[in-house]
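OP here, attaching both records as promised.
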Amino acid sequence: MHAWPASEVPALPGQGRDLRIHDTATGGLTPLDPGPVARIYVCGITPYDATHIGHAATYNAFDLVQRVWLDTKRQVHYVQNVTDIDDPLLERAERDGVDWAALAERETRLFREDMTALRMLPPQQYIGAVEAIPGIVPLVERLRDLGAAYELDDDVYFSVESDPNFGRVSNLDAAAMRLLSAERGGDPDRPGKKNPLDPMLWMAAREGEPSWDGGSLGRGRPGWHIECVAIALDHLGMGFDVQGGGSDLVFPHHEMGASHAQVLTGEFPMAKAYVHAGMVALHGEKMSKSKGNLVFVSRLRRDGVDPAAIRLALLAHHYRADWEWTDQVLLDAGIRLEHWRAAVSRPDGPPAEALVEEIREALSNDLDAPAALAAVDRWAVTQEQNGGTDAGAPGIVSRAVDALLGVAL
């Protein structure tokens, strides 16, 4: 599966700063010091209704991570999956009377278009669950051989008790885990499971549903968590720098994935930092496909909204915060964009080197994009009120906003 084209990232004078970021597993800021190549895995969409503002907010956060690393002159190895086979996708296809594979392809294509418009840097590997199946099957078989998996009516489950570090990503108690498992695709009440929290690794073929050859597992399809594990281990290996996604993935998805990988490899942890973006609400409720309260990037673009304004609307909120999308949020972003563009269009301006360092410092401090925006606002106000004599300043500001914030002025 191919990703989307990369926008050029301008080079800036000076040196970027290492990133300190909030790690869900420890509950505090973690300084990240990757090697020459920083490694990041971000969980992708289930392509049955893309791309809403909640998606865009999540991928914007991890785009900032990449931009901070690139500014330190590192290379970035970024991997993202597409869950192009799962129950929600099949249910939507049946509801709409369309082929599930065609639906997945259509929505994935739309997602690529939206990511391109928003200037999100693409992953080096963009892998669908279906194409990953040949690598998933051996992992499930190995977990079974290790005694960490068991069969139940031809389905295969992972035993969470096989990982002594289970629970160290989310730090939730058993009752909270069970509740979230039931809400987020698990089946804690299924009779016969060794532990209610045990997640499915391989679902045996069901009548009328797609299935694939699973070797000794029989025909079926993979569970949700093992999909990401197989892709991440194949392309990044253990101990990569950042595992990213929305905060709704902390449990069970990232918790279970970490346990799968740790049992498979005997190493801990799967990722050095587990980083999660907040949820976006609309009309007082979390924006979600199940509720149908979605604002789509593609529809905003069709209505003539500048993608740079959409991106500024996202950047106006700290990535970890839960916030609400409103017409005013977008209006404010559009006004800010016009103000910035007017400021950099002048032939001279106030010196910009200090501004570049302010943006760098803000982003290195747990991706504090609102503080970075405020710094650019101050420079633009000074430009408007007093002007300046530095002929290179407007160009430096324009390049810095593009390179570090992904906003083309």
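Record two, same layout:
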Amino acid sequence: MLGRQRIQLKTADQIRTMRRAGLVVAEGLEEMGRAAVPGATTGDLDRIGRQVLARHGATSNFLHYGADWGIQPYPGVACISVNEVVVHGMPGERELRDGDIVSIDYGAIVDGWHGDAARTFLVGEVSQEARLLSERTREAMWAGIRQIAPGHRIGDVSAAVQASLESWERPYGIIREYTGHGIGTEMHMDPDVPNWGRAGRGPRISTGMCLCVEPMATLGSEENDVLDDDWTVRTVDGSWASHWENTVAVTEGGLWVLTEPDGGKAELEAGGAVFAPLD
């Protein structure tokens, strides 16, 4: 994004504040996910996200994003992307139907520090193909997260995400134009964290870094385009897409997933990574 210059390292207290923002994000996603039922609109979900922010005295890092770029400022507090929409779906009157999948990307700012995460939710009775797309995108996110460690490189994270999505007999399209990112006093900061790449390449990971890992995968081609609203990204072939994301802090002892209620303990330890919260 515009204006990024260098990788920001955080103190322990700053990471603790980001954890507060991350817990607001986790709560909002949980509540929006429960409301993602047949008949609900994407605007209904966005309203729930606004209520969670207000309840905690947090502000949105999505609302009015892009106002300085000469494009339409983003109108919601969550990006709500249904089926063929990959990312940046704008909340409105689109009604969810039984069998849909909906990816919700949501963020919060607490005392100037940001949290950001995304989940794909299943609406009603969903096909096995769509269910597996979401689960395998989620698995790819965790594969990437487990490669975050001091001394590793960003390319190690990217390669792990790619390898996870390419490990299945059924091929998945990996979206390449949109990446994970650093996060801190801004939502999008250096370094970019691509969802594909070569291990051993890119910036070296250090204690105090906070990164968002966010794979986006499709059931078909990775080709995508942006609608005239300046935001909505959809697949060209109409294939469905899934999006998962977490904000991860590199602490002195290991990792703390700031946007997971348990801090990522279960998933990190299951994959051999070190869970090291700062509470």
